[in-house]
Amino acid sequence: MSAVGLDIGSDGIIVGVVRNRGIEVLQNEVGKRITPNIVAYSGKQRLLGDQAIGQLMSNPKNSIKYARRLLGLKPDDPDLKQERPFLTYKIDKTQSGGIGIDVLYDDNRTVFTPEQVIATTLTRAKMIAEAGLGTKVQDVVIGVPFFWADSQRRALQDAAAIAGLNVLRLMHETTAVALSYGILRPLPEKETRYVLFIDLGLASYQVSLVSFTAGKELKVIDTQGDKHFGARNIDQLLANHFAKYIKQKYNLDVLSDPKATLKLYKECDKVKTVLSANSSAEFHVEYIMNDKDVSGSMERTEFEALVVSNFFEKIIAPIKRVFESAGAKELKLTKENIHSAEIVGGGCRIPVIQKTLKEYLGKELGKTCDSDESVARGCALQCAMLSPSFKVKEFAVNDIYPYAIDVSWGPVPNKDSMDVEPSKPTTLFPKNQPIPSVKSLTFPDRTEPFQIVARYSDPSVQPDPFIGRWVVGGIPPAQAGKPAPKVKVFIKLNIGGIFSVSSAHHIEEYWVEEPVEPPKAEPKKR
Description:
The chain has helices at 50-58, 78-83, 114-133, 150-162, 173-183, 231-250, 258-275, 300-324, 326-331, 351-361, 374-386, and strands spanning 4-8, 12-19, 22-25, 35-36, 38-42, 45-48, 63-65, 90-93, 99-105, 108-112, 139-144, 166-172, 192-200, 205-213, 217-226, 280-289, 292-299, 340-344, 396-401, 405-411, 426-429, 433-435, 437-443, 450-456, 466-472, 486-493, 499-507. It is an alpha+beta fold. Among the domains are: 4-61 and 109-174 and 373-400, 2-Layer Sandwich (Nucleotidyltransferase, domain 5), CATH 3.30.420; 187-228 and 307-361, Nucleotidyltransferase, domain 5; 403-507, Substrate Binding Domain Of DNAk, Chain A, domain 1 (Sandwich), CATH 2.60.34. Strands 1, 2, 3, 4, 11 and 12 form a six-stranded mixed beta sheet that branches. A six-stranded mixed beta sheet has the order 18-13-14-15-19-22. Strands 21-20-24-25 form a four-stranded antiparallel beta sheet, with no helix packed on it.
């Protein structure tokens, strides 16, 4: 048996395993601990990871990056609209109404679904794990953003099934970081410690407030974030800044050409890195467009002013919402009385981000968690805890689901009444419901099949609030002289945050008349 945790991020793949009484992050075949999350096609070849990086620059239309961001979305999804500026390939609509990625493979136009592309990535991660462990890998725990909808979680599970993996749990990324933090260090036995985890990744931002009690459990109090803000938005800000400069000085519209845009983004990422440790940085790209070279420079003060003026509110807003949540208010928690604020994610390496967070929180930032590997390590730990083959320190992980879910019910629609309206929605799982959770509904006087419809209570949290529709059938007819049957339905929100109608039971009640004792004869007087 093996315990494997996977961090399939927007930018890279990290494989964590538990072995030799510790947690390790495995290297790929070129000795790197992070494998680029890119799938590229060149002729009859399919290139993965490091091999695909060069292809991304030379043939961007056939190089797929950010496929994870497309899982579970539809072509008309507003989230896809915000994602399009970062995509270099063509998006089509599949026959089933989902997203199709159009590439040239084996000299033919081929459309892959995001699930198929991510299955390729997961297969790659599986190969790294099997090569490092020397054994077959099947059971895994995979990190996911907390804000993912039901459709996105199901899509990742489908991709894992294609790759031959059994997902024991889809674990929220900040919860995985919290587990890695809490189980591997001494915690006070007689008091509760409150820690804020801040994860600014390449494409998203997550903030989680967690309590640790007596060194034996963690409880997520609230999680907030921004699914469209990450380090790449800072690259985009720099790219737009330098594009204006290039237009004025060289009369080149570099953003109109995909290859020139990629070269510009690559150089902007380099400038961002240099400015993290220096007061100024040079900007230079050879043959960016029309065989012309471009060059320039930027001061660190100018860069920091750009970031703060454009993104200050985005950096601070999720933290504000965490402390304004019902859970934090009930515990009377503020930014002043938390134990520490731990930062992870590549975006948190940028000094101006750290400075902004430090000034707002009024305390030094904790850097005891590995910025890149904490999610994979936490997922590997959770996999070991869920496996009967490993003995792990007793440590409870109490996570929450960020969205309230409504259910309604009514007659099953048919071809003549497809739009039949179910009952008034009832909130079955409130916001921040602990997971896993199971609830039951009892429906009296049911003799015909009926439907149960699930939606997110607040349509603003997900572009498509519809979760799913389930039909409960096979109900036996009522029998004469007996009470009308009841149907008891069990509805589950599992450990990975996936909603389902798990089972339904037919209940019959029988009326049993109690025997009436005959009256006792009174004794006769003599």
